[in-house]
Amino acid sequence: MKIVSSEMKNVLPKTHLNILNVATDLSNQMDTDLYLVGGCVRDIMMGLNNSNFDIDLTGSNVDKTFATRLADKLGGTVKNSSVFGTHKLSVPVGIKDNLEIDLAKCRSETYKNPGELPDVKPGDLFQDLGRRDFSIAAMCIVLQSPSNQDWKSGQLIDPHSGYRDVVNKELRVLHNESFADDPTRMFRLIRYSCRLGFDIEESTKNIFESSLNYVTAVSGDRIRSELEKIFDEEDVALILYNCVKLGLLPAFLTKFDCNHLMELKSISHLHRDDQDSVEFWLGILAMNAGKSQIEYLSKILSLSSKQNDVINDLASLNEQIKQNESFLLSDDLRQSDIYKFLLKYRLTSIRVCAETTPNKAIKALLEIYLNSLINTNIELSGEDLISLGISKGPEIGKLLNDLLYAKLDGHLKSADQETQFVKDYISVHKDIN
């Protein structure tokens, strides 16, 4: 019997411990067993006290009523409930932060065909742990023991030797049909291996290799979802590298050449926390794609209109750079020329191009735009121009652009100089008129 209460206290934040205490008290009131499951248990056993912990709870009678009452006690809400009997809570854990809690009734799963969603039925704890992806995810910590078991609070339940695999730093599936049942597990295997620094256990590696053909049975939506989870990792490029090296991406993208990802495993997206992180990495995936390849990628991954726009925009940018390379690398190229050339392209597309172009001069040009030019603003407004004597109409927009271009080229360094620029403009055009 392994009691891990001290490990929980050493690793989990006080906010999380408080949530677990409230949930345990409620399970006692509602006469249901309750367990902490999933990645949180794995991280506790690894001593990863710097993780952003999720809380996943399961129990024999954890239902919508339990979820609603727990949300009320924690001052949160039930965000949604699924057909699989799971409930997602959003709970405040600070002035501005919320924590999501996943609740589920213990269940069993059976798969009729590879790649299909499972048939779900109520089950016991051991059936619930047996449906997990890997042994290190098939552990739980007892919070409230069932009446028919002599389990202690804080006891680790580990029927598949997950803790041994944590110690040995290995990833192991629970049975030979694991990847056939759910081929998306193959993406998670590579993602966890890279994130945790774990090796893939030898028999699991053999099962992986023999199951690659099953990945085409999975819908594009589900594969895209797995890719989006990869795009949210720290070592995205390394994970994608291994997805190609181990044959997983080529097995799904049968008509798409993704070998370029083997050359890019050192890329780190500096903007990974922004809203376009997914589009950035899709751009990396599609960086060399032509029209037919883009259409294939869009269809097979069911890309959104925004995602489609970015990879098409990137293809256009690459083509225009190729066609205008001599102009872009000319000695008399001005900052305003760079600005005008790139202004119509999405920042995400430009970032992808800057990250991947082998041409150092083009890379430098793109980075000047990203790091400096797009942040350049003039001091005067349209209202200021009207007060100086410019008539309302399209002339204002043209003059504002001329002011910006002059500033980009280093000719204007203050509001006074901008004002004089406008006065000179008025004087010249008055003389012409």
Quaternary structure of the protein: single chain
Strand content: 5-15%
Low-confidence stretches: none
Biggest sheet features:
7 strands, mixed
In total, the number of domains comes to 4
Distance between the termini: 95 Å
Task: Label the structural class.
Answer: alpha+beta
Radius of gyration: 28 Å
- Number of DSSP helical runs: 22
CATH architecture type of the largest domain? 2-Layer Sandwich
Helix content range of the residues, please? 40-55%
> Strand sequence of the main sheet, in spatial order?
3-4-5-2-1-8-9
CATH domain class name of the largest domain: Alpha Beta
Question: CATH homologous superfamily of the largest domain - what is it?
Answer: Beta Polymerase, domain 2
CATH topology of the largest domain: Beta Polymerase, domain 2
Q: What's the pLDDT, averaged over the residues?
A: 92
Please tally the β strands and state the result: 11
Query: Could you say which overall geometry the principal axes of the C-alpha atoms support?
Result: elongated
What's the topology here?
Blueprint (H helix, E strand, L loop, with lengths): L4 H7 L2 H16 L4 E4 L1 H8 L8 E5 L4 H10 L3 E5 L4 E7 L5 E8 L1 E4 L8 E4 L2 H6 L9 E5 L11 E2 L4 H7 L1 E2 L6 H4 L3 H12 L2 E2 L1 H9 L9 H12 L4 H10 L2 H5 L24 H9 L5 H10 L4 H19 L1 H4 L6 H8 L4 H10 L3 H12 L10 H7 L5 H15 L6 H18 L1
Helix pairs in contact: 2-4, 8-11, 13-15, 13-18, 15-18, 17-21, 18-19
